[in-house]
Each structure stands twice: as C-alpha cells, then as structure tokens.
Amino acid sequence: MKLKVTIVAAILWACMLQGEGFKILIAAPVTTIYVKDSLCAIARALINNGHQVSMITPLVPNFAHKNLKVIKIVPKLKFLQNVNLFTLNSSILEEHTTKVLAATAEAMWEGLPMRREMGTFASFDAVVIPKFLNELIYPFLDDFDGVFLTFTTLGAEHYAVSHMHGLEVGYWFVKSLLDGPYVGSHSLTEKFILSILELSDHNFNHSKVHPSASDAIKKYDSRSIDFEEYEEKSRLRLLDGHWLLDGPLAHTPATVEVASLTARDGQPLPDSLEKFWRSNSSQGIIYVSFGSYLKSSFIPTHLKHTLLQAFSSLPHRVVWQYDGVDLDLPANIFRQKILPQQDLLGDNRTLLFISYCSASAMREAAYHGVPVLALPIALDQHKNAKKLEALGVAKILDWRTVTADQIVGAATELTTDKMFAEKMREISRVLRDEKERPGDVAAGWVEHAILHREAPRLQLPYGPEQLWVLGDRDLRMLWAATAGGLGFLLGVILTMIYVSVCRCIRRLRHKEKSE
C-alpha cells in the first residue's frame, strides 16, 4: 500500500513539475543542419527538464516529443542549398544570402504554419535565436515580454560581443573569425590583420545582411526595423565554443560556451557496413565525408580521380559518403549517399576521418578521438582544420594541388604514428569528462535567465570607455600609432598640395603683372 502511495505521489509531483514548466521558442528560420541539430540538443534538454519547446525551422528536427511543437516553414531556397563550395566567393555568398532571406521572408509571412503562430509570441517565457542570418524574426518580438537569448556559432561570436548593450567594440578583441587566417597565440602583426578582417566582416553584416533582411521584411511589414536595437536586447549568449578546441575567447559573463552539442556515443554499425568489413582483411576503417551539402557533381573531376586513386592504394577499408554513381570503385571502398557519421567515428575500428573539416566534423571527430586528414574548401573549414593541426591531431592538404601520393602518405602517417591517435583520445577524454552535457548546460542557463528575469547580474555594468580597457592594449596602441601616422601623412600631403597651389597662384599673378 505504501509503495502504491509513493508511486502515485511521484507521478503527481512529476505532473506538477511539468505543469510549472516554461514555454520556450527556438526560432531559426535560416539555419544549417549543424545549427539545427545543435538547437535540437538544447530543445531536448529543456524538454527533459519539464518545459515545452516550439521550434521555427525549415529543416526537420532530429527527434520528436509531445512537448516539442514544430513550426515548419518551407522556403523556396534554404541556406547553402545548391551552393558549390569549390567555387564559393564573397560575391556569390552575398547574392545567395540575399535570395535566401527573400525566400525565407516569403515562407514566414505567407506560409500557413507561421501565420497561425504570429500572435502567440507574447506567450513564451524565452526565445532563443541563432545570431547569424535570423534577423527576419525580430519584428515578431515587438510584443514579446520574455527573455531574448542568442545562439552564436564560432566565427560570429564577435557580433555577440560587439552588440552587448550597443557597444561596438569588437575590434579591440582578438577572436576567432569565421575564416580568419590565424589560430592560437597571435603576434602583434597577426592581431592587427585580424582586427582589419573583423572590420570587413562587421561591414558585411551591416552593409549586406541587414539591408537584405530589411528589404525582405519591408515587402510584408512597412515599419522601419532597427536591427541593432533588437540585438541589444539579447541578455544571454550561448556560444558554440570550447576552450580545448578553440582556445581562450574574449567574452563576458553573459556568454556561455556550450560546444559539441551534436556529439553523442556511437551505435552498432548497420549490417551492410559489417558485411563490408568482413568481406576482406583490413588494417582498419578510414571514413571519408565532405558533408551533407556537397554534392558529388560539385567535386572537380581531377579531385575525384585523385581521391579514388589514393583510396584504392590504401590497405584499409574506405567508407565514403558519396552520392554519385559515376566512379568504378574497387573492393576496398564502400560508397553510400548518407552514412551514420557518429556511429562510424565511435567504432574502434575507425582509424582516420578524411573530411573538409566543418564545425560538426571537427567537434565530432574530437569527441570520438579520431585523427583527421583535412581537405578544407571554404567558409570556416580552413580555420577548423588549422585548430586541429595546431593541437597535433590532424594534417592539412590543399584540394587544389593535392596528389594521390600525398593523400596516401598523410593517411599512412596519421594511422601508423600513434602520437596522433593518443593526442586525439586525450582530447576525447576531456570532452567526455564534462560534468554536464552541453545541452544540459545550455538548458540550465536558459532557465537561469528566465527565473532571474533577464539575468541582470551577468550584464556589464559599464560603458564602452571602460570595456575598451579590457581589450588588447598593444593592439589599441598600434591602431593609435597607425591613425597618428596616417594623420601625419595626410597632413604632409595636404601641406604639400597647399604649398604647390600657393606657388602656382603666385606664378600666375607674377605672370599677369609682367604682361
């Protein structure tokens, strides 16, 4: 009898807790698969804590739950859809971004699922919005009285720092730009170059992204949108970063690192892969993937044949995520359009991961302790590859000039030199030894921001003049010296012009008098 009473009491208590849960909106109308999966990890943790979560997304979440409501939007063009990374440049990215924002705005304002939810935003206790390319959601927050939080991926965290309380001071901090050329400790010259690159990156956001978002919104909402005013309202920033992989980053108490959200333990491999493994003797598995967005038709022909020649020469079982059927594969290569990446990385027979080194690839390889042979192509991939190389767990090859012998040589070194695997396993142990899963950490801070009404004690209590003091002193001095030098040079040039003009005037007057 006592046992029954205890069980009933526990059930009633659980129901009470569930009833007292918060309502949280995760709004990501523009997203990538990696960001979507990261947000799903946060959503799952929030739901496990008894809260209700709604997600605005163009992509299907990787789990379902009765307390997860999906508000699906269907834009005609998604971010990075049909983008050839091999030919990507700034102008193509700018044009693609403009089209994506326009298509997403149309899907949001004209799509039935979103129209049904337009009046419900005020009912949420908190809203989490990815920082980059999701400005379209801001007009819906006008009547929102809850807590506004941002999720920021590495390479965009300078936006989050720069916009805290409206302080445009990100240039004084040396941070990890999306495609910055340096990792680790920086010389003064490298700091100066990074600050210039950050100015350029900041300009892209303000001169390209914001105008494109504004144009897309104006078609449906005539109000003038001040994006910076909305961005200043963010009270907590969840940063996809980890000190072990990314090094120390300059941020404030209101920024919480929650990296490797998508990493999970591996599951047994499918029967098709097990059959492939047993079909022949092998020294181990090499897993090859260039991500979900890169179609086989985008890969240059010379690179395809170089990869095929190299893989054919390796004494390993090569498992290649490849959606084409245009290659005649030897017996040691298994091809499939979609492969269970984390199950393969989590299998102790996998010795090497050949990848273009996206953020998800970098973090999942580190979590599972598998060394990486990186062939970075675009965006943040070069930066990610350099981070792993600096940690001594990866080698980098240039896809433009790589040869089959170079691939075979690098793969052989990475699989036979135990130093690479030992260093990567040590990183894996540290990541796995975290006391809380990253999703649980993120969920805890979301709850903190709600319970403490916008977490006022995490906010900076001072203005830009004090915040600058926290920046890099040498970099500030170099900028001051550069500005002074340019000012002096400009003064000299103007003085020379003034003297030359005066001389010309005197000569003309003298000539007139002589005549």
Automatic annotation (TrEMBL):
Gene3D superfamilies: Glycogen Phosphorylase B. SUPFAM superfamilies: UDP-Glycosyltransferase/glycogen phosphorylase (SSF53756). Keywords: Glycosyltransferase, Membrane, Signal, Transferase, Transmembrane, Transmembrane helix. InterPro entries: UDP-glycosyltransferase, UDP_glucos_trans. The chain crosses the membrane at residues 477-501. The keyword Transferase applies. Residues 1-21 form the signal peptide. It holds the Pfam family UDPGT. GO terms for molecular function: UDP-glycosyltransferase activity. Belongs to the UDP-glycosyltransferase family. This is UDP-glucuronosyltransferase 2B16. It comes from Hyalella azteca. The gene is LOC108673143.
